[in-house]
Amino acid sequence: MAETEEIPMSEIQRQSSIRESTSGIDNEEKCDFLTDIPEDTCDGEHKSPILYELPPGKKYHLFIAHSAIDGQQALKICKELESRFLLKCMFFDRDFMPAKRIDENIQQEMEKSVKVLLLLSPDFLNSHWCDMEARLAVQMSFDRSSDLRIIPVLLRDLDPENDLPPFLKPYVCIDAQKEYDCTAKIHEAFYYTGVVDAVHQAELESKFAEDNRSQNGVRLLEMEGKLEKSACFNASHYVFLDLSDQDRACLNSNKTQEQLEKILDFVNSSCVMRNYRIFKNGPFQFGFTLLVGLTITFLYTTIGLLDSFVDRDTDGVWTVHIAPGALFGIVSYFLVLFIIRKVRKKLIKVLSKTIWEKNMKYFADSLCLVLIDVTNLKIPKLVTIRYDITACQEYTCLLLKKQRKLSSDSDAVNIVVSFQQEAKDLILKKLQEWNERGSLVNWASLESEAYNRHNTWLRKSCVCQVLERYLITQITDTQNSKYM
Length: 484
Description:
This protein is an alpha/beta fold. It has 18 helices and 10 strands. Strands 2-1-3-4-5 form a 5-stranded parallel beta sheet, sandwiched between helices. It has a 3-stranded antiparallel beta sheet with strand order 6-10-9. It has a two-stranded antiparallel sheet with strand order 7-8. Strand 1, helix 3 and strand 2 form a beta-alpha-beta unit. Helix 5 (about 100-110) runs parallel beside helix 7 and helix 14 (about 285-310) runs antiparallel to helix 15. The longest helix is centred in the C-terminal third of the chain and has 50 residues, at about 315-365. The chain is globular, with a radius of gyration of 30 Å. It starts with 8 loop residues before the first helix and ends with a helix.
């Protein structure tokens, strides 16, 4: 009799947990989420399934968002998901990168996760960071370029109809207090795409989109440049395509559409876009610089060898011509690479400044800014964000009155107009400063605030909050100078 292979106890337990967790899923759906399983294992029992493999670019199955008060319960759920169901979880205390801002950690780790687990509780709803995580997760779940999904869990003491914010209400939540095995339910939900009630999905997207579109800093539209190939090799270049009907629907007014179309025409004709293949870091750039280096090496060496042969002096050809030629080629390679990147930086700066000037012609009516995003140099992007400065302008005007020691009810027309214009100039100058350092296109890099004064996206600093600190510092310095 042939000897039977002994199966380790840990493997038996793993298979047992898999069977228990998938007992409510029919055979066809099992085959959808179990990978690399032979077809004959889909008739009920299977021997050694390989669980859900992480897609390219993903590091975690689940990003766990929870409040500090619920940390122990969240850790217990994390450990059970990893030990029982082999789902890799992103847990704050364990996996966030040190020496990096919290908001940067949240955004980057969430982008590396397949789904987000929201552990909802009263403390979760009162937490600034948890609110940011929930809003960012919902925003990313509606992004056409992201496959992120959300699994909401009610940990305790919450009424979904009355307590949850509007953008989370349409979600069907797992109630941890009613489930016999909450972790198994989360595992089951991970493999379903219908965690959100399909009837309410459109309502959810509509409500969230409407709430989002009113926030300062929110991205209304993001466009990627496309490589337009031509029969002529040198004629191939990047362009932004014309606005589609879907793109137009994302914009808030006809004025914004006109603004974006004008900037699209200008950017497509710019030197940056026509030569973007050389400017971006990639094979074409390195190939171009290598070709320049080899050409210089070839010309230097060839001219030197011809000169030696004409003079019939072939002694020291290697040291006099070939070796220096190779050295000049290497130096030329790095020199050209350095020049390309310096020129790229300068041209992008000039392009960004010109785009800003064009934005200012429409900004008062459109309340939108079109910005070039070269954070990822592989693909050029144009981003349209909303920013209404009306409330910020009024608040900054009050700060200016306080700085000049005028009463808040000063209503002289010339004073009011002067302060309003000065406040507007300060705000636009600060926005331009943010644009120059890339903060407007990379909104998550801005500082967060404990309170959201003027409804900014992801609860980031409003421009008047930043100006307030600057103006108050000036007032304090002025007062101190009087007593010195």
